[in-house]
């Protein structure tokens, strides 16, 4: 669900003029941060009008095409989380994500012309060591250093890479003393959230929405390196794909997202869109996926999520929920979700500039398993 990272702000002609001038300059870390800052300052509707296509209620996910880069839309992401174990049972969680933010659709003869900004977030949780590692990258895609293809599944930002198809995918990432190289094979078909993949996110407008689908259980094998140690790992991953052109609604503050992989071969995706006044947007929803791959939509009335504990980040001062009771009465589920490591807060200093909590958690109760949880806007 992550990807609604854009924040509405005030943009004007001066900001746009500076943006266009700077976009032609040479690439540097400082330039990327400046470009991203300006991107966040320009309101989504004004900037996108006449250039990027909105997601509308009549649209449906079409595969395999929507696996690939969708240049008609402004915001999109390929999002992987997973639970890995080495040969001795040592447990790790991981997150590897790729974002593409459209800046403008103009064609440039020069490589210095900027159409999109590509971002990757990479994190690993060492459960036994109680350690959380994270790093991020941003690149405007000049000279092939980052990009995404429209005719097949390939997305890359520096050494972080996703490629493959709907039957088999390869993920690799490397940054300093942390790397992974994984092969992922779906054990179930694609799950189309909402109505055929149209997933509305806000009461304010049916255009505050995304095309959203997932592979909720992917058999995963490969190698994870931390420092000088290689771990041969296997386990399960979850893949989310979302495509949109809008950011958060004016009244939205953030969201809580849960991806539960249960030992009985069911999966559950739930998200709460939180409003600034503390209420929940009625378009908060979810999906339950059965052992045989069938799935059904959950409305906000079908489930409840209650925070049981909280923790305050020493890095940012943000106060996050730290344990939850989840109830889905129609599925006989009454669950407690508990983070396996308390501090799993990601700081996007080199890319998005925001912070969020995203990490691996244990699931106990009427069913057991593992979960990935994401918390934004705290």
UniProtKB/TrEMBL annotation:
A Pfam entry, by short name: CrtC
Gene3D superfamilies in the cross-refs: AttH-like domain (2.40.370.10)
Domain AttH as annotated: residue spans: 75-245
Signal sequence extent: none
Domain of life: Bacteria
Protein name: Carotenoid 1,2-hydratase
Organism, as annotated: Candidatus Nitrobium versatile
